[in-house]
Design goal:
Layout lengths: L1 E9 L6 H18 L2 E7 L2 E9 L1
Antiparallel strand pairs: 1-3, 2-3
């Protein structure tokens, strides 16, 4: 059975474009290995994420 989780958070630092790119490289590899899919939106210091995968 697949599960989905969504959440909103606020960063305690200002991310630069390269910070986001580095984070995406690491999480893309982890998520692929763990068969996790989803979406991550970032605007100013706010994140919205929806992830789905097996429990």
């Amino acid at each position: 059975m697949r599960y989905a989780i969504s959440y909103v958070s606020t960063a305690n630092i200002d991310f630069q474009d390269q910070d986001i790119a580095n984070m995406m490289i690491k999480t893309k590899q982890f998520n692929s290995e763990e068969k996790i899919t989803g979406i991550l939106l970032y605007n100013e210091r706010s994140f919205f994420q929806l992830i789905e995968g097996e429990k």
